[in-house]
Amino acid sequence: MNFKLELKKLRYLTSRNVKIYFKDKMTFFVSLITPIILLLLFILFLKSTYEDNIFNILADYEVDKKIIDAFTGGWLFSSILSVSCITVAFCSGMMVIDKINRTNIDFMVTPIKKSTLKISYVLSNLFSTLIVCFVLLIIGLIYLAIVGFYISFVDILLIIFSIIITSLFGTLLANIIWYFTHSQGVLSGVCTLVSALYGFICGAYMPISSMGTGMQSFVSFLPGTYATVLFRHSFLNGSLKEMSKSIPAEIVDGIASGFDVKMSFFGNDVSLLALILVITLSTILLLGIYLLLSNVKLRKRIRVKNKNK
Amino acid sequence: MNNIIEIKNLIKYFGDVHAVDDISFSVQEGELFAFLGLNGAGKSTTINVLVGVEKRDSGDCLVNGISIDNISKILPTIGIVFQFSMLDNKLTVYDNIRYRAMLYGLNKDEFKENLNFLIEKMDLKDILKKQLGKLSGGQKRKVDIVRALIHNPKILILDEPTTGLDPRTRKTVWNLINELRSTKGLTVLLTTHYMEEASIADNVVIIDSGKIVAEGSPITLKNKFANDYLKIYKYDKSLEEIVKNIDIPFKINKEYLEIKFKSTQDAKNFLVKYNALIQDLEIVKGSMDDVFLAVTGKNLKENI
Q1: Residue of chain B whose Cα is closest to the Cα of A23
Q2: pLDDT at B227 over 90
Q3: Hey, which of A90, A253, B86, B287 has its CA 20 to 30 A from B99?
Q4: Are B166 and B119 in contact, with CB atoms under 8 Å apart?
């Protein structure tokens, strides 16, 4: 009975947090800055630049424009989703906002378990991110259906998995940082910094393969890079397969490497399974750190309580 | 009647600041209890410890006989209105109240029944779907009070609840509180620096620099610490000479002669003695302001 009641409280708290995020137009807008910038860059010049690149590579071959459109469109939406999973997660958290507005005090005088409140912050953070990302996915799929659709059912499942695991990764990372934050300044700073920088680091604005060697080595240590490549793979695999029907495999392979559909770790090719494992294990590691932090805080509280007795 | 709240030797320091310095008092079930003091006297800290927002350094607080160490058992019986609203400005009034109500395990019917009763009394029906952030200060305060009462608490804690409210809103708030006291036996613990609110309380504790300096019913406190005044409107002019010659404080105003007495008995004795010289008079009991000034040496009105 108590468990059922606690679940009900969790449901209402989570729903409250999600609702506030979507009602706060400013926060909502900030969290979508990167996808908006990407979309603008794409419309303004990225699309034509990439198209020119591909057409140059494939100058000697006959390639349907539809495949190229599908490829560049897939590249755009894999970029948008790989950054949104992180930036929305960082900007949609309610934990710090509640601390700033002192709403956390109101919850302290309400009969809810601290663990329920904490779980609600993580869940709502995750749900808000997932809602935004799935809406973006639907928009992306509609766009691709119009310009050229080569994504298989398995690839769609892989995209869904990538959204869920990357959003969870971003949510846990954000919540670990929010643990140590009480100020509006830090919240806005981190949110803006992540929104602005993450697009570059994860290779959303420009392919990782076009970065310098040092930068390439650095980003190959970041789990987010593996998530981005996973998105690239899921979105572009179908178009590349379609290209390979009329183009030699080594050229398609070159395009795949050039546009981050494949990545290497110090010269070794990273398989699809390895991509999945790196992002999944990193997420599990973050979950462990988050639980450890919660436990340390709880123990500290119990010690203070015992001291008071 | 039972003691529903008991504070025993409570101490809470913030570094060198002795916010609450060994205070003890109890609140009886169903009474209106006022906690009077200047800003920074320790009122809010005491309340925060009582509801588990602050940890105490020593002592104990019991609610219905349960120590605040078991705060989760106490919280369902308490409704609290803080000095500042802690609700969500981005949500509507309805959503704010609903989300909080559900955290007390209310079912939908209970919620609807309580909500309808409270919004009717607080005159909030028309703004239920409005965003909280767009309401006036008075409307927000009323929403805070509905939020505090939505789960039918046994104790209502009001931390400076009517600060900055217009007289009409203040009246609406007090009408509801009084109705709940008489129909449901609601206990009210109030911190305030409003004299009118303190003087309608059943019992008052005056706190200064973290220590209790006086406690009792308003009338007991007035009798003990405040003076009675005699305002004499029509009198024989010789009375002015008499008061000048006997050593008691007095003021001659345009319309009346005001004489201050140490006790009611002194006033009575004076009246009996000079009855023939007095035609029209008024006996005024000392106010809570006088009590406050007498026990703290500070003027409440000047310090708020």
Answers
A1: B90
A2: no
A3: A90
A4: no
- Which of 3.30.1050, 3.30.9, 3.20.20, 3.30.70 is the CATH number of B227-284? 3.30.70
Tell me: pLDDT of B218 over 60. yes
Place of tokens 């846990």: A172
The architecture (CATH level 2) of B3-221 comes to 3-Layer(aba) Sandwich (3.40)
CB–CB contact B86 A106 (8 Å): yes
At B240, the pLDDT band (50, 70, 90 cuts) reads confident
pLDDT higher than 90, residue A154: yes
Compute the distance between CA of residue B82 and CA of residue B79 in angstroms, rounded to an integer.
10
Tokens of A31: 């969290």
As a whole number of angstroms, the distance between CA A101 and CA A95 comes to 10
Report the residue from B86, B87, B102 with minimal CB separation from A9.
B102
**Residue matched to tokens 């009077």:** B36
- Runs of H (alpha helix) within B106-232: 108-122, 137-149, 167-184, 195-199, 218-225
Cα–Cα separations (whole angstroms), residue B63 to A28, B74, B161, B219, B298: 43, 7, 21, 27, 32
Q: Please give the backbone phi and psi of residue B8, each rounded to the nearest 5 degrees, phi first.
A: -120, 115
Mean pLDDT of the region A48-64: 84
Cβ pair B157, B80 in contact under 8 A: yes
Confidence check: pLDDT of A93 > 90:
no
Separation in Å, CA of A167 to nearest CA in chain B: 25
